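Pair request: fold both.
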Amino acid sequence: MPKILGESLEAHRREVRSRVFDVLRAQLYERGFDAITLAGVASAAGVGRTALYNHFPDKESLLVAFVEDEAAQYVTRLTDAVEAQADPVDQLATFVRLQLRVLAEYHMPPGTALASALAPAAYRRISAHADPITDRLRAILAGGVDLGRWPAEDPDVLIPMITAALGNRTLVDGPAEQLEDVVEAAVRFVLRAVGATI
């Protein structure tokens, strides 16, 4: 009988997923998605291959589950950080800061690389996790307009421009000691772009 990690089957499941996701996160950074194998992830996570296959039947399923887990955690973090600010200008600045800091922390393959590595249905599942982030940005922009903090603009035009600016890895791939200066420059850029009154 396979060894159970934790005090219950649910605790075992959480522990396996946690170990596997920690390994996958490191391997995505070190090797890239194409070089990852389920057997290698299982070995590095200290779980049996059968246990891993019970949770994730293939590499694509593993990546989708990982991204879903990371996205859920990030949305909670983003919501808490933004809601801690009362003023839409501060909310937008918080949004920009967190987006760039998280981009610096995580080294997922860019969208185009994922799109070519995954089946279309799996890529759509991963892409769907951007929706709550986009919804949060839309709410911030609407709140700023409602309170007269910036002029009304079509959010369907602004949102792609803001997310494109904040999704550029070259911004955060420089020396670590320059990251905060880059982040603050991006905050000023986005606030000017929406016409914020500071």
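--- second member of the pair ---
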Amino acid sequence: MWKWRLTAVGMNLLLGVPGLVPVWLLWYYVSNGPLAELGWTSREANENDGMLLWLVIVVPVVVVSAVIWWLVNEPVRRRAGLAPRAYWTAGALLTLVPTGVLVVGSV
């Protein structure tokens, strides 16, 4: 059981590396769209193509990434012996660790 838990930790940390792309795309879309409308962020000066184009790019990338993440995690979750809520929460947070490391490292 511990072997599968360690596998889950390592696997989700590794999935976080390509997971940087959908996280960045989501942030770019949200910061130039809804958050800019609220005045919380400022729009990218060269972003004049409209947000529909970004939505066409962001949605497929995020959906494909989420499906791959789920397909990889589902068999391991069954073998890890953890409650589903705990497993999925920990997996999602572990996947965000590489993004957090880059954000903290860039400051």
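Observation on the second member. Residues 2-99 form one domain.
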